[in-house]
Design a protein that fits this description.
The protein is an alpha/beta fold and about 325 residues long. It has a domain of about 230 residues: Rossmann fold (3-Layer(aba) Sandwich), CATH 3.40.50. About 40% of the residues lie in helices and about 15% in strands. Helix 5 packs parallel to helix 6 and helix 9 crosses helix 11. The relative contact order is 0.15. The mean pLDDT is about 95. Bound molecules: NADP nicotinamide-adenine-dinucleotide phosphate. It is an enzyme of class 1 (oxidoreductase).
């Protein structure tokens, strides 16, 4: 690890106040579990209905009153391809409002350490694989989620601008596709893995002889367990202090067909999987270059097969409360 990466930071005080924005979501809840298990005793949280981060005045009131030492921004309007493609104006506007309010309020409160979470959709549609951090702003975005991506890119730039203008040690991380407990299993707004889990669970429960998935099954995707992301976030807060964003992933990809097989096995579905090649495949490969994260001393640990089994178990145990 270079000196530049580690300068001015180190282990966080376990008694420091840490505000996790979006603590009930997939990422925020994993962060909450992780920080609790690491002995943090002063975690600040507000539910969406208690503090709407699109409300600028309320966000400032909260931040200036709480004056947290650390902020992690895991609040966002998030969705899969269908939701992003259907509501681009809402995705752009809400995400810009959430992050601008949160970051401006954190500047006003002079929060010394802040982690902004973006997403791998910030990269150009045709970025060279594995995608390096330097690919940002080198080409056109994937049109189905360009509005969301532009909001996230603005967040990265705001972090850099705050570092320059105010000298605060703020950082940003770009996770790959995530999965795990507390995911969103909605038919209209879920991501790849929760969508597959729900589809195979329902096929098994209904005794369906076949499951038909979109596309050919050949595109390759990377998946990171959200507990791994939470551990990466803590690691970054304690060990990384650069203006440039950092990719967080496994660096390993699988075909969608392999992923579907893992889900079918974890669910115990014994029927046939078919592929509807009249439906779009999306980009052929999407995997992050995680060299910088490795250099910073962190790597993913949850094996995909185990992570999927655990997520299926969580889905069943929490069936009535699952977002769907
Ligand atoms: N899921 C992935 O695969 C993935 C991959 C890469 C990056 N990320 C990034 O990780 C971050 C969190 O995503 P996630 O998957 O955890 O999403 P999520 O499960 O939908 O959680 C988002 C959280 O933000 C809250 N929220 C939304 N709008 C808000 C508002 N106006 N005020 C206050 N709270 C609000 C939500 O509360 P309500 O549910 O009550 O609205 C929810 O608790 C996002 O920045 C996303 O880009 C996610």
């Amino acid at each position: 690890m270079t000196d530049e990466m580690t300068s001015s930071i180190g282990a966080l005080d376990r008694a420091a106040s840490v505000y996790i924005a979006g603590h009930r979501g997939l990422v925020g809840s994993a962060l909450y579990r992780k920080l609790q298990s690491e002995g943090f005793t002063n975690l600040l949280v507000r539910q969406h209905n208690e503090l709407d981060l699109t409300d600028r005045a309320a966000t400032f009131d909260f931040m200036l009153e709480a004056k947290p030492r650390v902020v992690i921004d895991a609040a966002a309007r998030v969705g899969g391809i269908m939701a992003n493609n259907t509501y681009p104006a809402d995705f752009l506007s809400e995400n810009l409002q959430i992050q601008v309010n949160l970051l401006d309020a954190a500047v006003a409160a002079r929060v010394p350490r802040l982690l902004f979470l973006g997403s791998s959709c910030i990269y150009p549609k045709l970025a060279r694989q594995p995608i390096e951090e330097a690919a940002l702003l080198t080409g056109p975005l994937e049109p189905t989620n360009d509005a969301y991506a532009i909001a996230k890119i603005a967040g990265i730039l705001q972090i850099q601008a705050v570092r320059r203008q105010y000298g605060l040690s703020w950082i940003s991380a770009m996770p790959t596709n995530l999965y795990g407990p507390e995911d969103n299993f909605s038919n209209t707004s879920s991501h790849l893995l929760p969508a597959l889990i729900r589809r195979y669970e329902e096929a098994k429960a209904g005794g369906a002889p076949t499951v038909t998935n979109w596309g050919t099954g050949t595109p390759r995707r990377e998946l990171l367990h959200v507990d791994d992301l939470a551990s990466a976030c803590l690691h970054l807060l304690e060990h990384y202090d650069r203006a440039g964003h950092v990719n967080v992933g496994t660096g390993v990809d699988h075909t969608i067909s392999e992923i579907a097989d893992m889900v079918a096995t974890a669910v115990g579905y014994t029927g046939e999987t078919r592929w509807d090649s009249t439906k779009p495949d999306g980009t052929p490969r999407k995997v992050l270059d995680v060299s910088l994260m490795l250099q910073a001393g962190w790597h993913a640990q949850v094996p995909l097969r185990e992570g999927i089994e655990e997520t299926v178990a969580w889905y069943r145990a929490n069936f009535d409360a699952v977002r769907r």
